[in-house]
Each structure stands twice: as C-alpha cells, then as structure tokens.
Write a structure and sequence with these properties.
three-stranded antiparallel sheet, four-stranded antiparallel sheet, 145 residues, 2 domains, single chain, 3 helices, alpha+beta
C-alpha cells in the first residue's frame, strides 16, 4: 500500500516521492487528479485506489495531455509547461444567466459599489438562491483561474 504525505497547506493534496519523482494526488469530493512523470506510477496508484474503493463505485479514468478537471482545462501539450484555462466554464455560466443580466459596464467598480440602499427590497427565496449560486461560481472561478 502506498502511503502519501498530506500537504500541510491544503489537506486535499498529498505527495509521495516514487522513483525519485514527486507523485501528487489531489481531490475534490469525488474528483481526483493524479500526476507523476511515469505513466506506470499513475497506473499503480489507480490500482491501489481501485482495490480500496471499488466496492463503493467503479473508478472513471481519463488520461491525456489535455483534459477538464473541476471546470479547468489542464493543457500539458507544451513540454515543460501547463496552461490552465476556464473559458468553457465561463461560457456555460454566462449562458445560464437571464437576459436581464446581459450588458456591458465601463468599469467593474462604479462609484456606488459600496453604497448601501437601506430602502432596497430584499430578494425573494428563489432570487436569493440564484444570487448565492452565481457568487459561489464566480468565487470558484476567481480562486482557480
């Protein structure tokens, strides 16, 4: 059984040196990303995970130099570099917004940004859920991209 050391700064990341190279496993709920310089090491880690968790659900594995992980497109096609983009995530998010939110702004921070209108009506439950959902998606986007 492989034993990894959990990263002290992010408890959803674990590392182990295998064959002189760092193997990294990171996860978010049920999405896992495994990386190592040698493909057979990744296969070995997958085999260990399959042994442990196959009774819960079979693993779905995607391999390649370019793939989607948590809304990010991870592109390893350029040797020695990685390009991370979230264009599809942004397009999908924007396409789900209602037409009333279409438009442009000259600045993301107008002068009234922090002005509080005490007489403004509160959002109803559906509008509140909608607002919080999209703020969460934007925060995710900001943190990742």
């Amino acid at each position: 059984m492989l034993v990894f050391e959990v990263n002290p700064y992010d408890e959803c990341v674990a590392n182990k040196i295998i064959h002189g190279q760092q193997c990294t496993v990171l996860w978010n709920v049920d999405d896992i990303k495994i990386s190592h310089a040698e493909e057979q090491v990744v296969s070995q880690v997958l085999t260990e995970l399959e042994k442990e968790y196959r009774k819960e659900a079979p693993l779905s594995v995607r391999r390649g130099r370019k793939y989607n992980y948590l809304g990010m497109v991870l592109d390893y096609t350029k040797v020695g570099a990685i390009q991370v983009t979230m264009f599809d995530y942004i397009k999908n998010m924007l396409s789900d917004l209602p037409p009333i939110m279409n438009g442009k702004s000259r600045t993301p921070a107008p002068l009234h940004l922090f002005a509080v209108n005490e007489e403004a009506l509160k959002l109803n439950e559906a509008e509140s859920q909608f607002f919080h959902h999209y703020v969460a998606e934007l925060l995710f986007l900001c943190k990742r991209a």
